[in-house]
Specification:
heterodimer; A: about 280 residues; Elongation Factor Tu (Ef-tu), domain 3; Rossmann fold; seven-stranded mixed beta sheet; six-stranded antiparallel beta sheet; 5 helices; 15 strands; globular; B: 2 domains; four-stranded antiparallel beta sheet; 13 helices; 14 strands; about 30% helix
Chain lengths: ~280, ~375
């Protein structure tokens, strides 16, 4: 199943809409989750898992950020942001009541509903868990519709692990959650190593499974390759890509990767469309 | 229409509320700017072009359109080099828009060549042919007129024949003019739209004789004699197979990554934005500017640039133009105008680089 381009046409696709910060949750040392509600003139937003918004820190700049909230809950709009640059730092520093500009939602979705009846492997590296969280909320809520569901999650260090409450809730909902870190501290009693080392603990039948993978490109490459080696069909592996974006609507040209506009054709792609492209340096 | 009545065209356009833009001499080149009469045209001038080479030369005749193409293209009127997208004021729980949405201009583009019409149609697909429509572009384009002029000579850098975009104007115009110099200086004019027919009726024209029609054909045929060419059959796939060819490194030893080719190219559409605010922090605006895949920060994401080397940037430009453009927009992104060859400061020739990719010396094709 291939991702589809959007069908909606916004009259002013380049004009941010006003949203208000309702709640700020500090997840880790450099990661913040913002919960937003519509400001005057903005309409509540429905979105699909894996889609993103352009978030505008007023007067500073705009960056693409995946939606990390529950797609079934339209009452608030949630993004999880890592402080890595000028704009993301400004967004991470917002206080409740602040105005933030939002354009979106943009891009393709994790094809979660298409996997009913199948096993689902969700593999996340670092902040890559945020774009997958909407899919996990859906899987947990509709757990009975799916076969085995497993989350393989890796972070660099224990204090960089995100969404501890959710990880536990998903375990309770019948999702196998496996966590690993690259570098442990003295208190860590869990797995050590990269995400791919968790695959051997995962309970799933490769022939009837799909996978959603999000993390650094190198992590996605190795995870997809390892899952393929386990016998999963490449067209049922999905990854989410990231590139510089200025417009999110296919005008600015920045997010191109080969023939793809990451903003419109992605960010979620079936693995065969990306396999060759991401293996070529500096493409 | 006799050549000395050309100003009647300007008068008719101005009377209909059009803002005339067309070729004029400036700083040693023929550029596009606002013009108001035939006196602004580069009459009696031509351009001599080659890789990294452009010189104006005086013609022996009084041809109004006796040049080929200069550094400018019409995209600067439809997709402006710099424009404010919006200005907002932060007020309570809302944004107050404090700028006036720009009134789309009604341009008459005068002297549009066949390759340039092809370029306009390519940018139409980029900005107005997909899921999202750029409203400013679409409105200005819709209400602007294309007064085309057939080329009657080719520059040494032209390869529109190979790209199947010219030299004859075949579609996408309101009026198409062919300038005939002998035996008497005149224009053969055809209308390509309802607006064009209405405009034509206001011009002092006489029915075109068979001899004149033949003369026009012969004149355009002159422009078909082009020394540059490009083998386009299989090129899309060939470039995809050669993404890791050592030739990219070879080009990178010459390419300055200066972005001139992308600025001069009539189809390049990349842009960036800059956000600014005033000292109170409550007023902000966003400006859009032409950007280029040759600029270092074009591909920046946290941690660094995806394309750090000149080789990767040239590869992005060339493979996009000649290969992945087909996947995205259903056509080549190159119209064969030769601007990237002429305006490259080190004279890198796109057609030559394609030829080397097709027939690498001592290598396999």
């Amino acid at each position: 199943m291939e991702s589809r381009r959007p069908e909606t046409v916004a009259a002013e696709p380049l004009l941010p809409q006003p949203w208000i910060v309702r709640e700020v949750i500090r997840e880790t040392g450099d990661v913040v989750t913002l919960s937003l509600q519509p400001g005057e003139g903005a309409a509540a937003m429905s979105f699909g898992p894996g889609q993103f918004n352009m978030l505008y820190a007023f007067g500073v700049g705009e960056v693409p950020i995946s939606i990390s909230g529950d797609p079934a809950d339209a009452s608030r709009l949630i993004h999880t942001i890592r402080d890595v640059g000028l704009v993301s730092r400004a967004l991470c520093g917002l206080q409740p009541g602040a105005l933030v500009g939002v354009r979106g939602p943009f891009g393709s979705r994790w094809p979660v509903e298409d996997q009913a009846g199948h096993d689902v492997v969700v593999a996340a590296g670092g902040i890559g868990l945020a774009p997958l969280r909407p899919a996990l909320y859906h899987l947990a809520r509709h757990r009975a519709r799916y076969g085995n569901v497993v989350l393989l999650y890796g972070a660099r260090k224990p204090d960089e692990l995100l969404f501890g409450v959710e990880l536990e809730a998903w375990r309770q909902a019948g999702i196998q959650v496996e966590v690993t870190v690259d570098h442990a501290d003295a208190a860590w009693r869990g797995n050590l190593g990269v995400v791919t080392t968790l695959i051997r603990h995962a309970r799933f039948t490769p022939e009837k499974a799909a996978a959603f993978i999000c993390g650094p490109e190198v992590m996605m490459r190795f995870t997809a390759a390892a899952l393929e080696e386990r016998g999963m069909a490449p067209e049922r592996l999905f990854i989410s890509m990231e590139r510089n974006m200025k417009c999110a609507v296919g005008f600015c040209g920045h997010c191109q990767l080969g023939p793809e506009f990451i903003c419109m054709d992605g960010p979620v792609f079936a693995w065969p469309r990306m396999r060759r492209l991401i293996a070529i340096r500096e493409l | 229409m006799p050549a000395d009545r050309l100003d009647r065209l300007f008068e008719a356009l101005i009377a209909r509320g059009y803002l005339c833009v067309g070729p004029t001499l400036r700083e040693g080149a023929i550029v596009y700017d606002e013009i108001s009469s035939s006196a602004d045209l580069p009459q009696g001038w031509t351009d001599e072009q080659g890789p990294g080479h452009y010189r104006l030369r005086q013609r022996a005749d009084g041809a109004w359109f006796g040049y080929v193409v200069g550094p400018h293209s019409w995209k600067k009127y439809l997709f402006e080099p710099e424009r404010r997208l919006w200005q907002l004021k932060r007020a309570g729980q809302r944004f107050e828009r404090t700028d006036e949405p720009p009134t789309p201009k009604r341009y008459a583009f005068i002297g549009v060549r066949a390759c340039e019409i092809a370029a306009l149609r390519i940018q139409d697909r980029v900005f107005a042919g997909g899921s999202f429509v750029e409203p400013g572009y679409a409105r200005t384009r819709e209400q602007s007129l294309v007064i085309a002029v057939n080329c009657t000579q080719a520059a040494a850098t032209c390869f529109c024949v190979a790209m199947n975009t010219g030299p004859e104007v075949r579609e996408g115009y309101d009026l198409a003019l062919t300038e005939i110099l002998e035996p008497s200086h005149c224009f053969v004019i055809g209308a390509g739209s309802e607006r064009g027919r209405e405009l034509l009726s206001a011009l002092p024209t006489a029915p075109c004789t068979a001899e004149l029609q033949q003369a026009a054909k012969t004149a355009v045929a002159q422009a078909s004699r082009q020394t540059r060419t490009m083998e386009t059959a299989g090129l899309k796939e060939l470039l995809q197979k050669n993404l890791e060819s050592p030739q990219w490194q070879d080009i990178a030893t010459r390419c300055l990554s200066c972005a001139n080719c992308t600025m001069a190219c009539p189809t390049c559409f990349c842009s960036s934005v800059e956000d600014t605010s005033d000292l109170t922090g409550d007023h902000a605006e966003r400006w859009q500017r032409w950007d280029s895949c040759f600029n270092p920060d074009f591909s920046y994401i946290h941690g660094g640039e995806v394309r750090q080397t000149t080789a990767s940037r040239y590869r992005q430009w060339m493979t996009h133009k000649l290969s992945t453009w087909f996947d995205q927009f259903g056509s080549s992104g190159c119209v064969g105008c030769g601007r990237c060859i002429t305006w490259c400061p080190v004279g890198i020739d796109l057609t030559e680089e394609v030829r080397k990719m097709t027939q690498p010396e001592g290598g396999r094709p």
